[in-house]
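In the lab's daily routine, each protein ends up as an entry in a very long ledger. A line of letters takes care of the sequence, but it says nothing directly about the fold. The fold becomes a row of whole numbers, each drawn from a learned catalogue of backbone shapes. The protein below has been through that process, and both of its lines are reproduced in full:
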Amino acid sequence: MRYQFKFRPYQRRFGRTLTTNHGNWDIREGIILRLTDETLRVGWGEIAPISWFGSETLEQALDFCRQLPEEITDNTIFSIPDELPACQFGFESACEWGSGKWGVGSKGDEKNNFLTPNSSLLPYSGLLPAGEAALNQWETLWQQGYRTFKWKIGIDAIAHELEIFELMIHTLPASTKLRLDANGGLTYEEANLWLWTCANLKANGELPLEIEFIEQPLPIEQFQGMLELSMSYETAIALDESVATLGQLAACYQQGWRGIFVIKPGIVGSPSRLRKFCHQHQIDTVFSSVFETAIARLAALQLAAELSRNNRAIGFGIDHFFEQEETWLQSLCKDL
């Protein structure tokens, strides 16, 4: 199949600063793709890299797009190197969109509804702000229907975060599931303390809600430490930064990880190869956002609907970090 190829970079400011162990994030940058096939079907895709998380840089993705001709083929798309995982996802997703298999493909200049509702029935996890602000934010998300929350840790002094944690578990409703996300920012001793605290509270009947898992407690180079901790405590550990790309995911599986894998479709790489890996190994997955627009989100949710197991909430409850996007996105794409 041959495609007419167009692309456009974008910048999108967060409504509020996103703070993680990696630092503060104020502007989301990416690239919107448009592929038009020989039957005039249009497919939209998005490249939304996070270089500090393991993908290519935005400039590398732009360089790749700039060197492509205006007409490309399936061979071009499926030959994108593994060093460009966000590009792999963006181009393959555009192909799938244009094929009509999701029910959103269009011809010619017909308007696309980028905000087509997610077909997945999976629950969503809502992202709380870091620190004490989470104590004031959760109720708004609860009223919007969220019952699973993620809270960032490893940002402030551990003693202070444990104090907030104690307040949080007695403030959130008992039916809540809470995820603690360290973004690789803890030491082995700190991770052990978090896990011990959860175990101790539960043993003493003082943990009124479920701590679903602690996400990426240690840096990626400390895989063995996370493997040891996962075998020492009842509270689960999920890998995130350690499995940012398909190559990393496969490597951790080969080294014996059978816990939870947090998959960020926007940067993991080829959707077709991801499907193959997940079907072959039946891994326990949580699909998560990379703060993409509705274009990449639709593609990511398609994968989540196909590949999620154990009914875990998917990490796409991030809309409150941005202003309403429909008008902005339609305006961005109208001239492509």
Q: What stands out?
A: The CA atoms of residues 45 and 129 lie 29 Å apart. The two ends are 20 Å apart (CA to CA).
